[in-house]
Amino acid sequence: MGMIFSLILLLMMKLNNLWEMRFWFMMIFTFFTLKYLGSEDWGLYSYYLYIDILSSILVLLSFWISGLMLLASYKGVKQNNNKMMFFSFVVLSLCMMIVLFFMMTSLLLFYLFFEMSLLPTVMLILGWGYQPERLRAGLYLMLYTVFASLPLLLGILMISEKNGSYMMDMFKYNKMNLNMSMIWLGVMLFAFLVKLPLYSMHLWLPKAHVEAPIAGSMVLAGILLKLGGYGLIRFLSTFSFMNLYFDELIMVICLWGGVLTSLICVGQSDIKALIAYSSIGHMGMMAGGLLSKFMCGWEGGMLMMFSHGLCSSGLFCLSNMLYEKINSRSLFLYGGMLNVSSSMSLFWFMMCISNMGAPPFINLVSEILLFISLYLYSQMLAIIILMMVFVGGLYNLVLYVSIQCGSYMSFYNVVYSENSSEYLLILLHLIPLLMFLLNISYLSGVM
To answer: Where is the NADH:ubiquinone oxidoreductase chain 4 N-terminal domain (predicted)?
Structure first.
C-alpha cells in the first residue's frame, strides 16, 4: 500500500530533475518488491490489494521494465526535450495501473485497471510514434481490445449478481456454483486471448509495435502481453475452468499459429515486425501450456512470461539502437556490424539465443516445461512442437546473421558510435535472465 501511495506522490510532484527521480524510484521499488517473492503460498492481503507468488514476479517485472523504459528513452525524449515531463508522467501512470491490475482481488477493479492500462499505451504511440500511420495503429489497438473486453464486463456483472460478491477469493475457496453456460465462460476468456494475443486476433500487435517508440514497444512486449496471460491464469484457477470443451481448439490455434508466425518471421524485412511476430509464437506456446492443465505447464507458462518480457524488451532496445544510428529498420540495409562493434554483436548473439530458448538462459527451462506439458496433453502435438523449435531457431539465426555478418556499408564508420548507457541498458535485461536460473525452484509453489 505504501508503494502505491509513493507512486501517486511521484505522479503529482513537480521538480527540475523529476525524470531522474522517477527512474531511480522505479529501480528502487524493484528491489523492494523482491521481499514479496518470499511470501507464503496464500499471499498477503491489504484492503483490496493481494499479492502472492503468482503476481509478485509480474509486479517485479513491471517495475523493472518501466525503469528501463525511461533509460532507453533518455536520448530520444530527455536530450531532445520532446515533452519530457509528460512522457515520464505517462510511463509512471502506466506502471501504476499495471501494478494495481496484478494486485487486485475485486473483479470489477480487475477489469477497470485491465482497460485503463490501454490509455497510456495509446498516448505513448500517438505522442511519440515515428510515422503518421501511428494513428491507424492506435485505432487498431483500441478497437481490438475494447471490443473483446466488453463481454468480459458483462460476464463479471452476471457472476457477481448471482453470487453477491466481486471478490475472487469468494469464488476460489467457496467453490460457488456459477450456473453459466460454457459459451459465456469462453467469451469471458476471449478478452485475455486477444490481449495475449491469440493467433488470428493478433493484427493489432505488429502495427502497434512498428509505429510505437522504444518505450511503447518495451511496455507492449514486456508487460502488456502478460496482462492476458495473468488474466487467463487467474480466471482458470479462480473459477476452476478445468472442463472446457473448447480448450483443444484454442490450443491447436495457439500452437499452429506459433508455427505460422515463426514462418512469417523468416521472411520479414522489418526488424521490429520480426520481433513482434516472434512474441505471438511465444505467447501462444504459453497459453497452450496453461490450457494443458498440468503443473509443469503452469510453471513453464509463468517462466515464459517473465523470460519473454525481458528478452523481447532487450531485442527491441537493440533494434532501436540501430535505428537511431542508421535511421532504417530494414534488414537489407544492415550487415557487417560484427566489424563495426564486436561488443554489441555479443549482446545481439546472447539476446538471439535467449529468444530461441538456448542455454544458459531461463527461456530454455520454460520451453522444456511447456513442451513436457504439451506432450503429456497429446502426443500428436510433438510434431507441431518440433516444427516450432526448428523454425524458431531459424528466424533468430537469420536475424543475427543478417545484421552482424557480411560486408558493411561505408557510412557506418561516420554514423556509428556507442555510449555506456546503451551497454547498461542491455546488461540490465541480460542479468535477470541469468540470475533467475539460480532459483529455478521458486515457481514450484505458484498454485
So the answer is: 3-100
pLDDT of res. 16: 73
For 374, the domain range is 129-445
What are the CA-CA distances from residue 384 to residues 15, 255, 261, 275, 288 (Å)? 54, 7, 13, 21, 12
End-to-end alpha-carbon separation of the chain, Å?
24
Assigned domain for 102 exists: no
**C-alpha R_g of the chain:** 21
pLDDT tens-digit map of 6-55:
778 777 877 778 888 889 888 998 888 887 777 666 667 777 788 888 88
pTM: 0.93
Nearest to 285 by CA among 377, 191, 206, 361: 377
For residue 429, pLDDT over 80 is answered with: yes
Are 400 and 348 in contact by the 8 Å Cβ rule? The answer is: yes
Q: Exposure of 400 by Cβ count < 10 A (0-12 exposed, 13-18 middle, 19+ buried)?
A: buried
Q: How far apart are CA 89 and CA 13, in angstroms?
A: 10
Per-residue pLDDT tens over the stretch 206-220: 889 888 899 999 999
With b for 16 or more beta-carbon neighbours within 10 A and e for fewer, the 228-251 pattern comes to bbbbbbbbbbbbebeebeebeebb
Within 8 A by CB and 6+ apart from 284, the residues are 196, 198, 199, 253, 254, 255, 257, 258, 261
Half-sphere exposure of 195 (CA within 13 A, CB side): 28
Cis peptide before 360 (omega within 30 of 0): yes
Question: Taking the CB of residue 172, how many other CB atoms lie within 10 A of it?
Answer: 15
Q: Is 113 among the domain residues?
A: no
Checking if the pLDDT of 99 tops 90, the result is yes
CA 213 to each of CA 13, 253, 426: distance values in angstroms, whole numbers, following the listed order: 25, 30, 17
Degrees, nearest 5: CA angle 307-309-315: 100
In a domain, residue 38? The reply is no
- As a whole-number percent, the residues of the chain with pLDDT over 70 amount to 90
Closest among 200, 73, 79 to 127, alpha carbons compared: 73
- Cα→Cα distances 350→159, 188, 224, 422, Å: 47, 38, 24, 15
- Cβ count near 140 (within 10 Å): 17
375 vs 238, residue with greater confidence: 375
User: Is the CA virtual torsion 355, 356, 361, 364 positive or negative?
Assistant: positive
Is 68 within a domain?
no
For residues 143-163, average pLDDT: 85
